[in-house]
Design goal:
- The protein is of the alpha+beta class and about 120 residues long.
- About 25% of the residues lie in helices and about 50% in strands.
- The chain has three helices and six strands.
- It has helices at about 5-20, 25-30, 50-55, and strands at about 30-40, 45-50, 70-80, 85-90, 95-105, 110-120.
- Strands 2-1-6-5-4-3 form a six-stranded mixed beta sheet.
- Helix 1 (about 5-20) runs antiparallel to helix 2 (about 25-30) and helix 2 runs antiparallel to helix 3 (about 50-55).
- The chain starts with a helix and ends with a strand.
- The model has no long low-confidence stretch (mean pLDDT about 95).
């Protein structure tokens, strides 16, 4: 499996973690030192991996249980040696997000090291 496929697998794991509201899957997709940062409802959020995993797991029932699988598109990907970035658009909890994900390769494994998000559309 090449790096592009490994990164796509991490992105799919990230999306599936939110679909299932699964904290352990979040921790598998994100580096333990990762940050999730962006403005949500006008408030700057700066979450650690643990905090983001807790947020994701608190969404009950999960999107998949509600029959509302997360829609997402990988818009771009750039891989340079042991770093990469992926730009995705996803609809989660009725909100359309634009995510810029920075990834880091350690050994043969990739993980999300940083997530910056922008809300493109939120319900009123």
């Amino acid at each position: 499996m090449d790096d592009k496929q490994k990164i796509e697998n991490i992105i799919n794991l990230y999306i599936e973690s939110m679909n299932k509201s699964d904290a352990d899957m979040v921790k598998d997709a994100f580096h333990s030192n990762a940050k999730v940062t962006g403005y949500l409802h006008g408030e700057l959020l700066q979450l650690s991996t643990e905090e983001f995993a807790g947020f994701v797991s608190s969404q009950q029932p999960s999107p998949i249980e509600n029959g509302k699988n997360i829609e997402f598109d990988i818009l771009s990907m750039d891989i340079e040696g042991s770093i990469a970035y992926v730009k995705i658009r996803d609809k989660y909890l009725g909100i359309t997000f634009l995510d810029i994900l920075s990834l880091l390769k350690e050994g043969d494994n990739w993980s999300i090291y940083n997530k910056l998000f922008h809300v493109e559309h939120a319900p009123s």
